[in-house]
Amino acid sequence: MRYAKITPYMFIMPMLLGLILFRFGPIVASFLISFTDWRGTRPPVFVGLGNYLEMFNSDVFWLVLLNTFNFTLLYVPGVMVLGLGLALLVNQKLKGIAVFRGIYYLPAITSMVAVALVWNWIFTARFGVLNHVLRTYLGVSNPPNWLSNPDTALLVLVIVSIWKSAGLPMMIYLAGLKGIPAYLYEAARIDGANGWQQFRHITLPMLTPVSFFVLIITLFDAFSTFEVTFAMTRGGPLNASTTLPFYIYNNAFNFFRYGFSSALAYVLMVIVMILTYINFRMRSRWVVQDAY
Amino acid sequence: MKKYFSIASAAVILSLAAAASAQDTVTLRFYTTQPEATERPMIETCAAELGINVDATFVQGGVNNLMTELRALNTGGSLPDVFWMSSGFVAEFVLDGLLLNIQEYVDRDIMPQAENYFVSAFEAGRVNGDLYAFPNHFVHTVMFYNIDAFEEAGVPLPTTDWTWEDFRSAAEALTIDKNGDGLTDQYGYYFFGRYAHIEAWVYQNNGDWLNADKTAFEPTPEAVATIEFLKSLIDDGLAPTPAEMQGLPNPFTSGLAAMWLDGSWSIDTIRSNATFRFGVAIPPRGPSWQRDIAHGWSDMYAVGAFTQHPEESWALINCLTGPNRTADLVEAGKIPVYRPVAESEAWLELDKQPANKALLLEWAEFIGPNAFTPGWGEWRGYVDGAGLQGQLDEVFNGNRSIEEALNAVRTTVTNVLNRFYSN
Question: Over 80: is that where the pLDDT of B313 sits?
Answer without folding.
Answer: yes
